[in-house]
Write a structure and sequence with these properties.
Helix 5 packs parallel to helix 7, helix 8 packs antiparallel against helix 9 and helix 9 packs across helix 10. The radius of gyration is 47 Å and the shape is rod-shaped. The protein has 644 residues and is of the alpha+beta class. A hairpin with a 3-residue loop joins strand 19 and strand 20.
């Protein structure tokens, strides 16, 4: 930050600021599943975590809800990964932003285990009657239901048996009439007159069949055969009802102990409280029992899957906590914060989330303390180097000044060189951009010591009109001020026109104008300043500012000028006006005052002062600016050496 000036040697410091994007990338189709799109966001680099923060969002263009496993891989890292669902048709889901070590725009997005279901756990590779995980598609859901296994007494099986029967419509009609008669007889004998579902919906309808209904006719015959087989195997209706009720009660008790969405839904539908059954409810009882049995199988697999996912989540949580603790012990607080933040994502209870948050806060405070200590030590070295540089340069300047010899300029032209020391105060805007402190803007006016050098070329010396051209250069730095660093450079040229109508009168009038270029920077660390005085603070109040502008200066006044023997004396007083390059044309310049005294054998003392001076710099937080008036002040002592 601090650079040294040995007379005319200046090293400028340039600071580059890197911005960050806040724009999402374009929606892009997943190569295999064309109905899923993703968009990626790089939020930029964070000094707090020393990493780049990324986010991903997904959009479902299918006409069904979709769930899937998705991940974003950047240079081998896959921080953004997890299970997403169920995203509604046309819906968008964001993931929590997470850190990566890379900012590369070449990343890989993967999607697998795609499931079209209202629940992210609603697919299975083998569960009977459940949808399987989808295959690649062109934007239309492409999946199959797992084959449903049925018992030998099911209508499907009976229908299959009847498929070998005659394709002749009269034969099939004759067969169904015979079956209905047999079924009616068995109902009277073994079911106490309580009709079955197939008899009530088929035999009692007196339906007329045609050739187009042959497939439906075969299915109907299969259903009647199924009821005939069931009635032939029955012992007695009352005994069968009792067994079914007992079986249903046992299954209801079992499914009631399982806390899964499927079990709760099926139990609520098939296990009504306080229900009393009679013989006519036997078909419904069988259906309820069959539904519960199927649900028990599905629920157990669902419960196992939920348990497995919970164990995996717990392992990820524990792993993130362990890695964070290890990083804390090694002093890598940024990585520890990243791990603890991941742990919060994997936490399954409020207690786990609270522990991860507390550890994150501890790592954050440790990181702040470490950065503050490093920052204060760095500022101390900068202050020491600055003081040494100023002391060395001052000594060299004073030694050079002692070699200069001056005398009155009596010829038509003259040339002189000068060198000296100064103190200057130029207002500047600073901004606190520390992530650990409220962001504010300030108006500073540091008083900085520095050095001056230049040439004075005189034309028509001591004539009625004399012209003096003065190219000049000065540099000031924040020496002798602990916790503050930076400097400002000023260079330009001025011209002074002096009227000398009567040689016998030493009082003369002059006008002066010139161009000045100013470049400067300012850095202030409140904790480093407190440390230098033996105090300890944790304000994290760190301010930075810089300016780069030009000034047009013009003015005039009166001067006393006389030559006695080999010595020349000058006393000059005047008013000047400064207008910086960032002022609009309709804004008036600021006024200042100057006073100068010179004795050629001794040197020149000059004082410049301007109240309520303009303030250069970049204002980042206008609403948080602490407004106050600042003045410009400069004082310098120079010695002149005559060249001709």
């Amino acid at each position: 930050m601090k650079k040294y000036l040995l007379l005319a040697t200046i090293i400028l410091q340039t600071t580059f600021l890197f911005g960050q994007s806040s724009d999402w990338g374009p929606w892009t189709n997943v190569s295999c599943f064309r109905g899923i799109q993703y968009s990626v966001l790089n939020k930029g680099y964070s000094k707090i975590t020393n990493s780049y923060w990324w986010n991903v969002r997904w959009r479902n263009n299918y006409n069904e809800p979709v769930s899937f496993d998705g991940e974003v891989i950047i240079d081998g890292e896959n921080s953004l990964h997890g299970r997403f669902g169920a995203i509604k048709p046309g819906g968008i889901e964001h993931y929590t932003e997470l850190p990566y070590k890379s900012s590369s725009t070449h990343f890989t997005v993967r999607v697998n285990s795609v499931c079209f279901s209202t629940s992210w756990a609603g697919c299975s590779e083998s569960l009977e009657g459940w949808p399987n995980y989808a295959e690649c598609d062109n934007g239309t859901p492409n999946y199959k239901f797992n084959k449903k296994v049925t018992n030998n007494n099911s209508p499907t099986n009976s229908s299959s048996n009847s498929s070998n029967s005659s394709e002749n419509l009269p034969d099939l009609v004759r067969e169904i009439n015979e079956k209905c008669s047999k079924l009616q007889q068995l109902i009277q004998e073994k079911n106490n007159g309580n009709v079955t579902g197939s008899y009530n919906s088929i035999c009692a309808v007196n339906k007329t069949w045609d050739k187009s209904q042959i497939p439906s006719l075969k299915i109907a015959i299969g259903k009647i055969n199924n009821d005939i087989e069931n009635l032939n195997g029955k012992k007695s209706t009352s005994e069968d009802l009792s067994q079914l009720v007992n079986e249903l009660n046992g299954l209801c008790s079992e499914i009631g102990s399982i806390n899964s969405p499927t079990a709760v839904s099926v139990g609520k539908t098939n296990c009504p409280s306080g229900q009393v059954y009679d013989q006519k409810d036997i078909p419904r009882l069988k259906t309820q029992i069959n539904n519960i049995k199927n649900a028990l199988g599905a629920s157990k697999k669902e419960e196992e899957n939920i348990k497995r996912l919970a164990e995996e989540q717990k392992e990820k949580y524990n792993s993130a906590i362990e890695k964070g603790d290890s990083a804390m012990q090694n002093g890598d607080y940024a990585s520890a914060m990243s791990y603890y933040q991941n742990a919060q994502q994997y936490a399954s209870t409020d207690s786990e989330k609270s522990i991860a948050q507390q550890k994150y806060n501890q790592a954050f405070e440790k990181k702040k303390d470490a950065e503050r200590k490093e920052r204060i030590e760095k500022q101390k070295k900068t202050d020491d180097n600055e003081n040494i540089a100023y002391a060395s340069a001052s000594a060299a300047t004073i030694s050079a000044m002692s070699l200069f010899e001056d005398s009155p300029s009596l010829g038509f032209s003259s040339g002189k060189i000068y060198m000296g020391l100064n103190m200057e105060k130029i207002p500047i805007i600073s901004n606190n951009t520390s992530p650990y402190h409220i962001n504010k803007s300030y108006i500073e006016a540091p008083l900085r010591p520095g050095f001056d050098m230049g040439l004075i070329v005189g034309i028509a010396n001591n004539k009625k009109i004399s012209l003096y051209i003065n190219p000049k250069f000065s540099y000031n730095l924040s020496a002798l001020s602990e916790g503050t660093s930076g400097g400002n450079m000023e260079y330009g040229v001025s011209a002074l026109l002096r009227g000398n109508w009567n040689k016998d009168i030493p009082w003369k009038l002059y006008i002066e104008g010139g161009y000045i270029k100013r470049v400067g920077s300012f850095h202030y660390d409140a904790d480093a300043a407190a440390k230098s005085s033996g105090a300890t603070t944790k304000t994290d109040d760190v301010r930075d500012g810089e300016f780069n502008y030009s000034v047009i200066r013009y003015g005039g006044g009166i001067m006393f000028h006389t030559i006695e023997d080999d010595d020349e004396y000058v006393v000059k007083a005047g008013v000047f006006y400064d207008k910086p390059s960032f002022f609009p044309k309709d804004v008036k310049p600021v006024i200042g005052f100057t006073l100068q005294g010179m004795m050629s054998s001794l040197g020149t003392l000059e004082i410049n002062y301007s109240p309520n001076y303009f303030i250069g710099g970049n204002l980042l937080y206008p609403s948080m600016l602490e407004k106050e008036n600042k003045s410009y002040f400069g004082i310098k002592f120079t010695r002149t050496g005559r060249l001709w």
